[in-house]
Specification:
Blueprint: E1 5-14, E2 17-27, E3 32-36, H1 43-51, E4 58-63, E5 66-67, H2 73-79, E6 81-84, H3 96-105, H4 110-114, H5 116-132, H6 148-160, E7 166-170, H7 178-188, E8 196-200, H8 204-210, E9 213-218, E10 221-227, H9 228-232, H10 235-244
Helix pairs in contact: 3-5, 3-6
The protein binds adenosine-5'-triphosphate and magnesium ion.
Adenosine-5'-triphosphate is lined by residues 14, 17, 19, 37, 39-45.
Length: 245
């Protein structure tokens, strides 16, 4: 079967620094794929090259069989990519309901919004997202009233609202308590039926539990890639993690 996402030979050079040095990433439909590696190994840069926030110096990105290497972030979003990065996109003064509604409307054309029937559908979808992320009781609270963990869940809900084919999450559990991490894993499980996921994480226990396959980056290149089992027994991976431990 053709992969949903294929990044090949990505190189990204910032001045004198080579952030990516020929990195590959392949993600199948409905696959949960973890991206791990030491600090500064190029994980975020790879995610940005996939999402279009950075244009690689060389290399290609195909999505659903189309070459999108030089497509704008907006075109990639229309093609079915959605992302949540380390920087927040929540509007704190707005209610949770309105934050999700905005995320949905960004993907809906104006003529469709004019029809009240569509607005009814939007309402149902907003409520469904809040329900799914256990935030329905807080629907009319301002986003600023949420705990750190809940704000992260709201952002994931916003990223999922337009029903993407691929969700990109860069360290979604950063700053979360152990319990919030556990809940995050639970909240992500059901989306597997609908889309693929690429997730960057430092917490190996967390990523091992939710991912089908892992890619390990080191100094901008792929150190190893495969099932969680394969990575756990990889001598090359162990060497890098021990070297830094
Ligand atoms: N816009 C930029 N300009 C210059 N250098 C950059 C830029 N973005 C990233 N880098 C550098 O590229 C390298 C890879 O950074 P990147 O953020 O991709 O790593 P990372 O694996 O996500 O690290 P972390 O685990 O700390 O989040 C680092 O040395 C970083 O300083
Ligand atoms: Mg990063």
């Amino acid at each position: 079967m053709m992969a949903l996402l294929e990044a090949r030979g990505l190189v990204k050079i910032f001045g004198k620094l080579t952030a990516l040095n020929g990195a590959d990433l392949t993600v199948a439909e409905n696959e949960f794929h973890g991206l791990i590696g030491p600090n500064g190994s190029g994980k975020s840069t790879l995610m940005k090259c996939v999402a279009g926030a950075e244009i690689p110096t060389s290399g290609t990105v195909t999505f659903g069989g189309h070459d999108i290497s030089r497509a704008s972030p907006a075109d990639r979003a229309r093609a079915g990519m959605s992302l949540k990065f380390q920087i927040t996109s929540v509007l704190p003064a707005l209610t949770l309901y309105d934050n999700i509604l905005l995320a949905l409307q960004a993907q809906t054309s104006l003529p469709r919004l004019v029809f009240s029937r569509t607005r009814g559908i939007l309402h149902d979808r907003v409520m469904a997202m809040l329900e799914q992320f256990r935030l329905v009781d807080r629907a009319m609270d301002p986003a600023s009233a949420l705990s750190h963990g809940q704000q992260q869940w709201l952002e994931i809900a916003m990223a999922l609202a337009p029903e993407p084919k691929l969700l990109l999450l860069d360290e979604p559990t950063g700053g979360m308590s152990l319990e919030e991490r556990r809940v995050t894993g639970e909240l992500l499980q059901p989306i597997k039926k609908r889309c693929s996921l690429v997730i960057v994480e430092h917490d190996l226990d967390f990523i091992r539990d939710i991912c089908d396959r892992l890619t390990v980056l080191d100094q901008g290149a792929v150190l190893d890639c495969g099932t969680v089992q394969h990575i756990q027994s990889s001598a090359r991976v162990q060497e890098v993690y021990l070297r830094r431990a």
